[in-house]
Write a structure and sequence with these properties.
Layout: E1 3-9, E2 14-20, H1 22-32, H2 36-54, E3 61-67, E4 74-80, E5 84-89, E6 97-98, E7 101-102, H3 104-108, E8 113-119, E9 126-131, H4 137-149, E10 153-161, E11 167-177, H5 183-195, H6 199-205, H7 209-216, E12 221-228, E13 230-231, H8 237-245, H9 249-258, E14 262-265, E15 272-275, H10 277-288
Parallel strand pairs: 5-13
Antiparallel strand pairs: 1-2, 1-12, 2-11, 3-4, 3-8, 4-5, 6-7, 8-9, 10-11, 14-15
Bound molecules: zinc ion.
């Protein structure tokens, strides 16, 4: 089972989010028929989105868009404060490896940006953009937290894809210095950086996240909360009906004349919604009444 734990270290001067996302990653591989390095890039983005979602509250939500102008195209991931994530990539059939390791940078490209769009249920969405610059999504998100949220952060993301194209393990950790952090806290995080360079090994070694926290911070951490996480899409026939309505009456008439029906596929979960002629007429009627 996938889950996420939030902990405090050194009397709350450091906070840690640790997530296991193996099932989420396997759901995405199955839904999108992802090839291994595409699974790595989407899996890591979904992991970071889940952790950032856990920093939100109530009905708040966020979207991460990454486009490095590489073979995979765009990566779009939505997440929320309830531990739900969904995502897709433009081209799932991408695979690059180098020296036996999945090659994220060749998959993603390196000439582009990460956009983080937060819906904090205020009048406007809050958007922040940072460049892709290091070849490592974990390092680029470390830069994002420092640059956009003014929070010194250590980010590590790990994923292992097996020969049969399933994820053996996937997860992520974010360690953040809180405003009252001391010089000793900074040194502690610096020491952890090497230990976290292979997060997937830690995830393979320990069956549960609590044991990883104990290995990383033996005597000085306190677990605040545990939350289940999952791949979940909230699409519905109604939401796509609203999408068809935005085409306008002329275009809907064209669809009725040419095909007599419409089939819409959700990018995120590949659910198929069929609209017959009666459905399309009802959408048209709704538009006329406005
Ligand atoms: Zn969907």
């Amino acid at each position: 089972m996938d889950y996420l734990i939030k902990s405090l270290v050194n009397d709350g001067r450091i906070r840690v989010y640790l997530a296991k996302t193996t099932d989420v990653c396997n759901d995405a591989i199955r839904i999108h028929d992802l090839w291994p390095s595409a699974a790595s890039v989407l899996g890591k983005t979904m992991t970071i989105a889940l952790i950032m979602g856990a920093m939100l509250k109530g009905d708040e939500a966020l979207t991460i868009k990454i486009d490095g102008n590489g073979p995979i195209g765009q990566i779009i991931v939505d997440s929320n404060a309830k531990g739900e994530v969904r995502g897709y990539v433009s081209n799932p059939h991408v695979h690059f490896s180098r020296k036996g390791k999945l090659d994220d940078i060749s998959t993603l490209g390196y000439n582009g940006y990460i956009d983080v769009i937060k819906d904090l249920k205020l009048k406007d969405l809050y958007t922040s953009t940072v460049p892709l610059q290091t070849g490592s999504l974990a390092k680029d998100f470390t830069y994002y937290f420092l640059h956009s949220e003014q929070t010194p952060t250590l980010t590590s993301l790990g994923i292992k894809i097996k020969e049969n194209n399933t994820s053996e393990v996937s997860g992520g950790i974010i360690i953040q210095l809180m405003p009252k952090a001391t010089e000793d806290d900074i040194l502690l995080i610096e020491r952890k950086e090497k230990q976290l360079s292979s997060l997937s090994e830690l995830l393979l070694k320990h069956h549960n996240l609590e044991d990883i926290m104990t290995e990383l911070f033996p005597n000085n951490h306190r677990i605040l909360s545990t939350m289940p996480i999952s791949f979940k899409c909230h699409c519905s026939k109604n939401s796509f009906a609203r999408g068809i309505a935005t085409l306008g009456i002329t275009e809907i008439n064209n669809i009725i004349e040419e095909d007599g029906k419409a089939e819409v596929v959700c990018h995120y979960c590949h659910a198929i919604y069929n609209f017959n002629i009666q459905d399309l007429e009802i959408i048209k009627k709704g538009l006329k009444q406005k």
